[in-house]
Amino acid sequence: MCKTGIPAHDKLPVYSWADIRKHATKSDRWIVIDGYVYDVTCWSKKHPGGERLIANQAGQDSTDAWIAFHNDKKAVSKYLAPLRIGRVREDENKESELIKDFRELRRTVEDMGLFKASVPFFTFIMFHIIALELIGWLTVYYFGTSWLALLIASLFLLSAQAQAGWAQHDYGHLSVFNSSKINHCIHIFLLNFFKGASSSWWNYRHYLHHAKPNTIYKDPDIRLDKLFLLGKTLPIEWGKKKKGFMPYQQQHKYWFLIMPPLLLPLYFNYEVPYFLWSRKLYGEMFWMATFFLRYIVMFYPFLGVSGALLLYLWVRFLESHWFVWTTQMSHIPMDVSYDQDDDWVTAQLKATCNVDQSLFNDWFSGHLNFQIEHHLFPTMPRNNLHKTSALVKSLCAKHGLNYQSKSLFRAMSDVVSCLKESGKMWFEAYHM
């Protein structure tokens, strides 16, 4: 039964963590924020980030996740207050030294103004995306449709699409404007209209990923087990149970044939429309359709309808390689396991690593080479992530956490190495 009302602090029931952890089922969900217990069973269905995001936090302390994802905490708190049903026992409501230091670090970077976006930076990002797309179109307009002209044009169009992908990520995290509404509108413009995907679909997947990165059955980005087994847990489990229909011991080889070339042009072109249709998000379907109309209008005079669509698939095929390697190199080589109910900092450091800073690496990855800082502070504008790096390194050194930063080549090669290792684990467990 859903509970409402705002009892006074001293009249709130007191619960132990053993009591709280029992409330982590589909019909009974409690979470803890700042020492208070909230019954979010009914509210989870109304949560803007989706019910599953709340479900994945049930029975746990969600304080730092709540802080990380909400810019306007005062406005969001009014929704929490009626859901408050108790508080954690005083002797069990103690911050670890790591979390104390992390929260102090967050206050420090807030005071430094690092959650304020640079207007010139994001203006340049937007204009350079549009310029890349325009140059791609002008290449075809002036030089025709020879294979060389189309190849050169496709490289500009590819860069525009990839950079728009990194830019929409900024607006999806509400890290550019103070207004969530403005961020959301530009997010739809970039992702639906400019890229032909979906803002709601991205939010659903990406926030689940951030809340529980590399967590089996909770992070959708690692739900690859039909084709690939990641980490050291599932390969052994599946091997012992004789599960799996792929030759996983060869997954580091067929990875090159499946994941980088096919994720965007094949799988996402199926998943996104299915997501929108199943949730009846017809408005977003309209904006997604305008992308394909725009592409046809741009290239129909030179290539016809079928030619324009083939060019789109070719660009998406190229972009898929860029996208997959860039997003997976910071996660696949890291720990992949079941939910250990780790604190926010430990969970993010176990699942993420950085790629060394350079002008090229920053541009190529949309500053997601600072994956550790981004996961710790997901609403921080990307142009400020490098400014927090030294502080985060100090925090990790003090508490014995592994802060990894690699070269671009090593980060990509580690993906293949880890796939090979996981496949070998499955094969050995299967044939024991």
Q: Which structural class best describes the helix and strand composition?
A: mainly alpha
Helical fraction equals: 55-70%
Radius of gyration: 23 Å
pLDDT averaged over residues: 94
List keywords for this structure.
Fatty acid desaturase 2-like isoform X2; lipid metabolism; globular; oxidoreductase activity, acting on paired donors, with oxidation of a pair of donors resulting in the reduction of molecular oxygen to two molecules of water; 432 residues; 17 helices; two-stranded parallel sheet; 7 strands; mainly alpha; transmembrane; five-stranded mixed sheet; 60% helix
Tell me about this structure.
The mean pLDDT is 94. The relative contact order is 0.12. With 432 residues, the protein is mainly alpha-helical. Strand 2 (24-25) and strand 3 form a beta hairpin. Helix 5 (97-111) runs antiparallel to helix 16, helix 6 (119-143) packs antiparallel against helix 7 and helix 8 (180-194) crosses helix 12. The strands form 2 sheets. A 5-stranded mixed beta sheet has the order 1-5-4-3-2. A two-stranded parallel ribbon has the order 6-7. Helix content is 60%, strand content 5%. It is built from 17 helices and 7 strands.
